Amino acid sequence: MPKKAxxxxxxxxxxxxxxxxxxxIAAVNPEDFQDARALKKHLEPLCKVPRFRQxxxxxxxxxxxxxxxxxxxxxxxxxxxxxxxxxxxxxxxVTVAAKGQVEEAEQILQLPQNPDKVxxxxxxxxxxxxxxxxxxxxxxxLLEAGANKNLGLVNGTPLALAxxxxxxxxxxxxxKASAWVxxxxxxxxxxxxxxxxxxxxxxxxxxxxRADKDLRTANGNALGAASSxxxxxxxxxxxxxxxxxxxxxxxxxxxxxxxxxxxxxxMRLLIENRIELHRPVHKRDHLAMTxxxxxxxxxxxxxxxxxxxxxxxxMSEDPTSWKKPLLVGAVILSIVALYLLGGDEMKRxxxxxxxxxxxxxxxxxxxxxxxxxxxx
Length: 376
Prior knowledge:
This protein is α/β, with parallel strands linked by helices and 376 residues long. It has helices at residues 36-47, 87-99, 102-109, 126-132, 136-144, 158-165, 168-176, 190-196, 200-208, 222-229, 232-240, 254-261, 264-272, 283-296, 311-315, 323-341, 344-354, 361-375, and strands at residues 9-10, 15-19, 24-28, 54-58, 61-62, 74-79.
């Protein structure tokens, strides 16, 4: 079968570019290009090779990238393979990328050296290091050189690393280069990592790029991770994007998890949007909450805001449960303790929103004593 002809970019120009085999690949106007480097960029989609692997020769001499083209009418294009770099040279390239040394990286790419080779520990390439450390210009250069924007190793893809670290400009560059927004080569997609790390601006970037807001991992989804870690801004961004089903490492009600950890702002967001509000809480979680409440005291006082709205309502589905009165007492006791040990601002908030509970505090304490004595 005959080979498919290389497309010719015919503009009626006086400068013609030929391949080594004698085939004309382009005819251009030299005044349209500032220098040889600009012409190489123009030839990239025609020869499918980045400028670093192109050599333009005129009368047997290789043109430098800054060479002017006005007086030239014919050029030969030579396409070079990558050099066989040693492991030491590969490691050096990764180090150069990690330091953001763009000029040194340009020289290495001109050898030309493959930008996708992995350093000796097997965890990084030049692009992965540049993205992890937020070197925008280095990332641009490596992408221009044809580095694989979706190559993921043990720590994830370039987009995943940049997202987790909150490097917004690097994320923008990768998204513009059409990096896969939901790629989870290391088990966690970029959105999950950004959400877990509290990188709200990056989360918004990824959502705008149509990242799957509900994509599930072994540790849950983005909304679950952000809620569990207490990142209210991220939770708000995900809810605004339509996320309503938080998933965590286990199937525990996320409102319960958030309350257990004391993330008040996240708790309010979930309640206001009626997320997890009526999903039952597992009995083992009720027992763990009550036990830990008495054992650890003020670490868990945040439960005062959620248990009346979520846990107690879910327990009403079990009319035979003996734990309900005990749980009521535990909730009110946590409010009392929070009031006694909290600061002035917390006391004002409790007086304003939950004053009615204090009329029942002694009754609740009686409930607690009664059921502890009965079921000890």
